[in-house]
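[Meeting: bench + compute handoff]

Bench side (C.D.) handed over the final construct sequence. Compute side (W.E.) agreed to return the predicted structure before the next meeting so the bench team could plan truncations. Sequence as handed over:
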Amino acid sequence: MNILKKNFMVERLEGSMALGYCALAKGEYDGMVTLTKDIFPEMAGSLIVEEAGGSFTNFKGEKINFEDRKFILGNSKTHKKLLELLS
């Protein structure tokens, strides 16, 4: 997490992840990193983000699947930077 703090303003999102995905889709956030136990909210969140023109992948930069539990999402510029830092 320290590498993220050096390069980005880091906030912990409290409350609904769905609202976080919508905020990213609206442009209120440039990117997010999520760690989860349950994939189903992330499947819905990926649709929200991708329909708004963003990217939503696992830490390998691949399309998400049911085995994934770590995700990177954001606009094209931020997603690429986060992917480079966390891969």
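W.E. noted at the follow-up: The chain has a mean pLDDT of 88. C.D. will use this when planning the next construct.
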